[in-house]
Amino acid sequence: MKNADLSRYRLNWQKEIDGASLYRALAENESQAQLAEVYRRLSKSEDKHAQIWEMKLADAGETVPTRKPSWRAQFLGILARKFGTQFVLPTITGNEKTDSRAYNNQPELETGFMAKDEKSHARILSEALKFTGGLSGGAVAKIEGRHRAGGGNALRAAVLGANDGLVSILSLVMGVAGANLSSHDVLIAGLAGLLAGAGSMALGEWLSVQSSRELYAHQIKIEAEEIESAPEEEQEELALIYQSKGLPEERAREMAAHMMADKQNILDTLAREELGIDPEELGGSAWVAALTSFVLFAIGAIFPIVSFIFMNGTAAIYASMAISAFGLFLVGALITLLTGQKVLYSGIRQVLVGLAAAILTFGIGRLIGISIAG
User: Fold this and answer.
1) Segment (H or E) for 278
2) What contacts 24+ positions apart, CB below 8 Å, involve 199-203?
3) Confidence band (pLDDT; 50, 70, 90) for 188?
4) How confident is the model at residue 167 (pLDDT cuts 50, 70, 90)?
5) Which of 92, 193, 221, 369 has the most CB atoms in a 10 Å sphere around its CB?
6) pLDDT-derived band of residue 351, with 50, 70 and 90 as boundaries?
7) What's the rounded Cα separation, in Å, for the pair 82 and 165?
């Protein structure tokens, strides 16, 4: 048995342990009973896959480790418990699609059916993501609009929102410090940049969400008018929607007729099925989304500023770079929740890119400072 094969067995085993853990977390925190049961079944499937790799390791004379999810899986589970399944579902879905191809070129006989299972899991999660309707109103409070990913990936938006604040204010602070201004001036510039940047992000988010709400409200108004003026056409459209979801034509027409007969709820049904809009949410609260965007940017921006509150001169600059490097590494580590990359690689890459931008602006600031002084 080659060491490379043993390493592959352990990697496969850990992925299955992580998958089982994440599906359990989704099941425990899913409010819709049918969907929770789906997640429980997926968790059991991943457990069975893990058992296969445990047997492979045991047959090779290796000690089978105690089952323990990786820090990435544990952290996603914590987020699911704290913010709900919709907050992490897009990330888990993306990871599952990537992992579904992992068994394609592996030689073991069992990988054939496991590959089919994993591809099935990816398809189920994609459908679950559609079924949940994207983000709930509460989850909208945790995103920053211009980074909103397909499928409503709130976790990605939160990480990138904080990264924006950290990198932009670090560059600003280093540029001002490079011009040989006092620590007090650097602090004032940093705080002004924080407020301006966070305020700009919040305003942009408010306009984005509010515009979406107004558009959705207008579309629902038009839908209500069409129900009154052309109910037969609306019923036909609804039947076609159900057919596109896989129902036979006759059954789809029966369901559409039944829904149209429910005068009290038909507008809600058509808004959800035809327009993909939740009439109760309308895209979430613009004010909550704006506040969240402000806070996310400010959290990242505080890293390069804090040293200038307590220190002066060169020491404050070095401390700012060190604290910011820690923040950048943390951002890189959180990004691995989305990409599945190694923490060390992603963290160091983020640090190098962020510090390169800071050093560049410091150099430009120094040249401007020398030019003005001369």
Assistant:
1) none
2) 199/294, 201/144, 201/146, 201/161, 201/164, 201/293, 201/294, 201/296, 201/297, 202/290, 202/291, 202/293, 202/294, 202/297, 203/290
3) very high
4) very high
5) 92
6) very high
7) 24
Q: What are phi and psi of 184, to 5 degrees?
A: -65, -45
Of residues 103, 25, 230, the one with CA closest to residue 238: 230
Question: What is the average pLDDT across 3-31?
Answer: 89
Contacts of 216 (CB under 8 A, 6+ apart): 275, 277, 282, 283
Q: Amino acid identity of 207?
A: L
Do 329 and 349 contact (CB within 8 A), yes or no?
A: no
Is the per-residue pLDDT at 275 higher than 70? no
Question: CA end-to-end span of the chain, whole Å?
Answer: 71
pTM of the model: 0.59
**How many C-beta atoms lie closer than 10 Å to residue 3's C-beta?**
7
Domains in the chain, CATH or no CATH each? 3-132 (1.20.1260), 139-186+286-373 (no CATH)
